[in-house]
Amino acid sequence: MPDLRVCARRLTARQVVSGRLPGMTYNKAKLYKECLMIVYDEQNQTFTLHTCNTTYQMKVDHYQVLVHTYYGPYVGDNSLSHCLRCADRDFSPNPNEAGNDRTYSLDIIPQEYSTCGVGDFRLPSVEPELPDGSHTLDLRYLGYTLQKGKYTLPDLPAFYSAEEEAETLTLYLEDASAQIETALYFGVFEKSDLITRAVRIINRGKETVRLHRCASLCLDFLRADMDLITFNAHHLMERCPDRAPLRSGIQSVGSVRGISSHQHNPFVILCDQNADEYHGLCYGAMLLYSGNFEAAVECSPFESSRLVMGIHPYHFCWSLRPGESFTTPEAALVCSPDGFTQMSQQFHRAIRDHLLRDPYSHRRKPVLINNWEATYFDFTAEKLVDIANEASALGIELFVMDDGWFGVRDDDSSGLGDWQVNKTKLPDGLEGLVSRINSLGMSFGIWVEPEMVNENSALYREHPDWILHVPGRAPARGRGQFVLDFSRKDVRDHIYGQLKTIFSSAPVTYVKWDMNRSLTDVWSDALPPQRQGEVYHRYVLGVYDILERLRTDYPHMLIEGCCGGGGRFDGGMLYYTPQIWCSDDSDAIDRLKIQYGTSFCYPPCTMGAHVSAVPNEQNGRITPLETRGIVAMSGAFGYEMDPGKCSPEEKEIIRRQVAWYQTHYELICRGDYYRLGDPFANNLFTAWEHVSEDKRQAVVSLVTGSVRPSPPYSRLCLKGLDPSLQYRINGSETLYSGGALMQAGYPLPAFSGDYQAIQLYLEAQS
Known about the structure:
This protein is α+β, with helices and mostly antiparallel strands. Helix content is 20%, strand content 29%. Strands 6, 7, 8, 9, 11, 12, 14, 15, 19 and 20 form a 10-stranded antiparallel beta sheet that branches. The chain has an 8-stranded parallel β-barrel with strand order 21-22-23-26-27-28-29-30, surrounded by 4 helices. Strands 5, 10, 13, 16, 17 and 18 form a 6-stranded antiparallel beta sheet that branches. Helix 12 links the parallel strand 29 (607-612) and strand 30. The longest helix has 23 residues, at 648-670. It is globular and about 85 Å long.
């Protein structure tokens, strides 16, 4: 699918009606007839986007303003313009061409991409600084193009498709006075109920324009009686749902840390106030971006609301010279008429099938063991081989060597930036160690943190100007390290050259890409003062660039993203790293909450989840090994411990866990996911379920909380089964109908002790 970067010129009335743009080289009429997901009604000037269960509609009004008319459950091709109403609202000004018509104001009507300075005082989507110093933009409709397949975005992550799986609508807007053109991209994935959005701003003038804000998504609603759900918290407790009703004014979440952050996630939900897992209308919005972002909702006094989502305007200022353009990150929308579960499943399918570029997409990922919590920095090649030997005997398939293998690295105060093997720890080099690991029947993975440098390193001593720093100021440290200026190609080239030497020296099949601090002192030696507002975004583009090079040169290598655990768990990173270490908190009980919140948007196969030793490093909690395994098996499964310290009974449990995960991998990683209990509620247990597409298999997992005296008899109502089928549970002779298991439930055993767990495998009988 080619990149749709066609730019419209001023169109005649005839061209606007026909949709033909000057310079178009393909047969527009033929493409229009072939596109079924997107319908253009010439008479009503409406564009209607259809997925299996939803409809999205826009209209060009009589002043050539692109108006949003509807997004919700499927309603067909009818024009929904009757939903729009105009009224004289005091202090809401009227466009000049409206004359004395006080009922028409941009401050009132729902718009597809809001502007600024021309009478709409709500959240703007875009704010330019024009050569004359004004910040005014008035975008009017020019024309459209329609294309089978999905648009692409240069140098940015985006959902992808085969030509027959999606369609693209591009709408062109222009401010003739400012000489700024805007292309609004809409990608429609019918089966996934997914609509993607992106924006391209083009400077058609003769002088430089500076963008202070350029959002990816604007979505207006003719209602404000909704709840906003965001996913917040902190390092070691990421993506906890936070639900509150919309109120007058602006509610927002975002990040100015240079990363999408542990504190807030670039995914939000707007929903009916009574919406739950299986009832109520809800809208999910995800930004595919790994840097500073903002998601803001504003309620007007007239019971309407607007969601704007995109790059955070903090310290953002992008210069567009004549002829240059700026492309926003992609945003993705799912509307579910039937609650959160349907929304989550649609996002999960779309991410698995159209975002992840996973070398294991058609085969099972190996179960891994990571040496970090077993050794920290204190290891030798012999110690690593001993751990691998014990793990191999338990069926574990991939050994990952974590931090401490390079440079002079005995703690976290030195070595970052010097990506050469430490021969004191690994006297036979990486190739010698990998050969020994491979001889055990295991593949090999390695940890890196390429975006950082320690002051005590050869790289920093040679190139102190390569870090983000402000002239005349001593830079702040985070975790004893500085941030390399990845907005600079020369810095990226140097780091990538070192990594390529390492990865080419031995058969490395897995890389854990870590990043352990937020950005400060954001200033680059490579840019003039008036362009320092570009550094945050150029840094993110630099990270994407080096990850794309890595994917290109090593297509069979699995890359796991990590940012102090879950500090950069977003759709942008998933495009390059198809799984992400979900959190540095590996405690099973805390992970119930973290993985629960993450599941509202991101599928289980993307969540790195490991069994660690007890007492847990983060909180000192002791949980049974069976429980730790069941929780970790809901994601990309592995271990973070020294199996040589396990008892024979514990080793047998690990052996069974590995075999179980290997057997049920496809069901866990590609099945439909159901949340059967809320770990944030004061419940007796938390439960979740994976169901195969044909509904003939399911895995149900359940973990109890603290023990209570005289607990009530409990049952668990399952979801997603075929009510007409009979299921056998864990191979027992008893058969249960799917209808009975969903309506009457499955009786739970009596549990003794805290944090107990069970796992059920259901298989339909022919």
